[in-house]
Amino acid sequence: MRILINALSGIGDAIMFSPALALLKKHSPASQIDMMVMFKQVEDLYRLNPHLNNIYFIDFLKQSKLKSLKQTLDVRKNNYDASINVYPSNRREYNLIQLLTGAKVKAATKYNHYSRSNFDFLNTELKQEVLNRHNVLENFDLAKLIFPNMQESELGKMEIFLSEEDRKFAVNYLFENNPDGKPLIGFHAGSATFKGHINKRWSAIKFGSLAKQLSQKYGAKILLFGTETDVNELIMKLGGENVMIPKTGNLMQSLALVEKCSIFVSNDSALMHLAAALQIPQAAIFAYTNYHELHPWKNTHVICRTELDCSPCFFNSPKPVNCIYKGKDEFKCIKLVEVSDVMTACEALIEEIPRNIES
Prior knowledge:
Elements: E1 2-7, H1 11-15, H2 18-27, E2 32-37, H3 40-46, E3 54-57, H4 65-76, E4 82-85, H5 92-101, E5 105-110, E6 125-128, H6 135-146, H7 164-177, E7 184-188, H8 204-218, E8 221-225, H9 229-239, E9 243-244, H10 251-258, E10 263-267, H11 270-277, E11 282-285, H12 291-294, E12 301-304, H13 332-335, H14 339-350, E13 357-358
Parallel strand pairs: 1-2, 1-4, 2-3, 4-5, 5-6, 7-8, 7-10, 8-9, 10-11, 11-12, 12-13
């Protein structure tokens, strides 16, 4: 059987398909399973995954439509028996691309919001989106449309396969920059910016204060990850001499350093999910996104959030997030998370107090 996985959304969404991918291979080890992506970092993330035969990178966003069409039709020549649009991919463009790949069975999600405009009819198999169901499980449901005998209990953790070269980079970096072997704590203070998601970022000033407190109490080195240079530079300035911004050449080198961390502190972001895949205990800071659907999958974690009647309010749709409050109270769900809340979460993780706490 030939199966195509259309992982056309971002890094975090792509890694949350990895448990379903492993299960597809388990249930049909002789199948050819390929993946199509449109972000280079997703290609890097899956390049060494043993469950894939081929991975096709098509730069839909930057190259001409004609070139993208030609490359898509080249992928179509593999004559796929089934294809899956990775959850969430609630845009009509993804369904059009899946149609062009020509699989006999085309599996996708029917979204609870704005699904009518998504061209759902282009798919042959639709799975209804379920509120409060984790993204990993939504992806499992899609895979189950192909192999109905799959059982949810079979799902494992998310998977990342690092090269020895990437791991050597991390060892050499830490030999030079942490010769005393101080404990490492990773931070990611950024997030996606599309659909207004910059508003789910916890304050850089609060990250800086947290860095200082962790450094003072535990003698830890704080490693700042992500591409948000201005945010990281402010945290480094406020956090003190034990805060570093590692210079890495690519995502996989960054992940090799994340793997060396004792704990990881982040907003709801792709790096949060990648740290979960690496099994690094986490303090995960949530605003208006649904932590039931997005918490670190099968990994030790503490959820840091503010309980409000209106939150979580963001759902999967093409529309940007919109807060019901204005002025100083706008997005107060993230503003009300205090440094003390996250510090308590970090202490619980470091001191191995019970797992999977919500605070």
